[in-house]
Write a structure and sequence with these properties.
Layout lengths: L1 H34 L5 H75 L1 H18 L2 H15 L2 H35 L3 H14 L4 H6 L2 H22 L3 H11 L5 H31 L3 H14 L4 H21 L5
Length: about 325
């Protein structure tokens, strides 16, 4: 094929040269004819003869070259036809091979399905056991259904369901006991609002549980009992004129009293606070008289903080800067 192309290219080049000679001889012939000189008559005849010969050779060469091209085209068509036939034959062979491979793969999948059936079952059962250990009950239930559907292992499935039910009951019991224990701890430290929230959660999760039902209503009952004890201590503090104890109890009672109950205690509470303010004022005066500036400053700050609107607090504010200076001088070892 390559040699034929080279021969064709050479033929075209030769024809180009021949036609070039014909054109050149024709041009020279016309030049000699135009000049019309007698001495150029022979040259004119020679160039015309060369033109005729070159054209004749070119015509013959062109015809031969065309015949060669036609033969090559025919040969190429035959070669293409033969290649096409081989391609069709190869396609049929390829289809047969692919069909054989496909059948082999299908057979391989079936064999693998049988061969690995036991392994798949073991992996699935292990996954179920892990979900049970982690408390993932819904996931374990789904996998148990898959175990029955794919492998038909009802016996193993029933055993795992019993294990699942037991583990779930144990977990729920532990959560229940932990919740009740937490509620009782909150009762002990008198955090009744938080305790009631925990009771409500357990009632929602375990509405029919006997232990949870026992907790119902106990929070308010315990709160009322604690309130009653505080009121008894308050009455005792007022009766004994125990100012410090009365103030502390009154702070605790603030979380238990309604607005009406607070109004009832208002007068006795004023008396307690007046007594406390009076006692603090006496302590402040004694410390100032004894030039115990640090103690006086401490009591003075307490008066200003706890009774900011009192006349005594106003008097302390007027002296607070002097007390600070004297307390600093005393701490640095300087005398009055």
């Amino acid at each position: 094929m390559t040699e034929g192309k080279k021969e064709n290219r050479a033929g075209v080049i030769v024809l180009g040269i021949v036609y070039g000679v014909a054109v050149l001889s024709l041009i020279l012939n016309r030049v000699f004819h135009i000049r019309g000189e007698t001495t150029l008559a022979a040259a004119e005849a020679l160039t015309f003869s060369i033109f005729i010969v070159a054209v004749s050779i070119g015509a013959v060469g062109t015809g031969l070259l065309m015949l060669v091209y036609i033969a090559q085209i025919r040969a190429n068509n035959m070669s293409l036809l033969e290649d096409f036939r081989r391609l069709i034959s190869g396609q049929k062979n390829t289809e047969a091979i692919l069909t054989q491979i496909s059948e082999s793969l299908l057979l391989s999948d079936a064999i693998k399905s049988v061969a690995f059936r036991e392994n798949d079952k073991s992996v699935l059962m292990e996954a179920i056991k892990q979900d049970i250990q982690r408390g993932m009950w819904e996931s374990a239930e789904l996998l148990l259904g898959e175990l029955e559907r794919r492998f038909g292992r009802r016996q193993e499935s029933m055993q795992l369901r019993d294990q699942l039910s037991h583990s779930r009951n144990v977990s729920l019991q532990e959560k229940l006991e932990g919740g009740i224990k937490n509620i009782k701890s909150l009762w002990m430290i008198h955090r009744y609002e938080e305790a009631q929230k925990e009771v409500d959660k357990l009632l929602q999760l375990y509405p029919n549980n006997e232990e949870v039902q026992k907790c119902k209503g106990q929070t308010e009952q315990r709160r009322e009992e604690q309130k009653r004890r505080l009121m008894e201590r308050w009455d005792a503090a007022v009766k004994n004129n125990d100012v410090e104890q009365g103030v502390e109890i009154l702070k605790l009672l603030d979380d238990y009293l309604t607005s009406e109950e607070a109004a009832v205690l208002e007068e006795s509470a004023r008396g307690i606070f007046r007594a406390k303010l009076h006692n603090m004022g006496v302590q402040f005066s004694l410390f100032v008289t004894e030039k115990k500036w640090s103690q006086a400053l401490k009591v003075g700050n307490q008066i200003v903080t706890e009774f900011p609107n009192s006349q005594m607090a106003q008097e302390v504010r007027e002296k607070i800067d002097i007390l600070k200076q004297r307390a600093q001088h005393l701490s640095s070892g300087q005398s009055e």
